[in-house]
Amino acid sequence: MDSLFDRLGGAPALDIVVDKFYAHVLEDNRINQFFRGVDMPSLRQHQKSFLAYAFGGTPAYDGRTLRAAHGNPRGMGLNDDHFDAVIENLSMTLQEVGVASELIDEVRLVAESVRADVLDR
């Protein structure tokens, strides 16, 4: 069976999704404060690398852990409501680019699987 990464369209699709996703995030007043002053081109690259790994496209990820990477946002009050807004923006982005609902559900499950690490529980 192909990985979720492959079924989503591989690296070219991930490039499009991540770029569109962050455009939505930066417009979302519920969560855009967490991205002020962030080097967005670098963040996009890290996100693409992480998602390629999380979706089974690469065997390893050499970036920071999710707990470490989200320390500053947690210090700014990052909580479940914000995490939900991120998942909502990701789902909306996937719908916009024509990803099938069953694949969006799989992506949401992957996102949910990291909630505890992102929120340091």
What's the topology here?
Layout: H1 4-8, H2 10-27, H3 40-54, H4 66-69, H5 71-75, H6 80-96, H7 101-113, H8 115-118
Describe the structure.
The chain is an all-alpha fold and 121 residues long. The chain has one domain: Orthogonal Bundle (Globin-like), CATH 1.10.490. The chain has helices at residues 4-8, 10-27, 40-54, 66-69, 71-75, 80-96, 101-113, 115-118. It is globular and about 40 Å long. The model has no long low-confidence stretch (mean pLDDT 96).
Please identify the structural class as seen in this structure.
mainly alpha
Low-pLDDT parts are none
Care to count the β-strands?
Answer: 0
- Report mean pLDDT, rounded to a whole number: 96
CATH domain class name: Mainly Alpha
Précis, in short:
By secondary structure, the protein is mainly alpha-helical.
Keywords:
single chain, 121 residues, mainly alpha, Globin-like, 8 helices, globular
